[in-house]
Design brief:
By secondary structure, the chain is mainly beta. Helices cover 0% and strands 45% of the residues.
């Protein structure tokens, strides 16, 4: 059985916080494990797209990381 959904348990960073690549940003949960998702790049957490508690597709959008002043893509 493949996992297709993940639960957002807790954001470890707030919008506007600086992030370093590899730093934990959000705690996620599957049926079998809880884990922390790390920042893929250095930047700023511009916007949290999915607040806890919520269920999203694996690989789905959780938030936006960019540089200060970057615009968030229109939904």
């Amino acid at each position: 059985m493949n996992t297709t959904k993940v639960n957002v348990v807790k954001w470890l960073k707030n919008e506007g916080d600086a992030l370093k690549q590899g730093e934990p940003v959000v705690e996620l949960e599957t049926e079998k494990v809880n884990y922390e998702l790390d920042a893929p790049v250095d930047g700023v957490l511009l916007k949290i797209a999915v607040r806890e508690p919520a269920e999203v597709d694996v690989g789905g959008l959780l938030g936006y990381i960019g540089q200060p002043g970057d615009k968030i893509p229109a939904s």
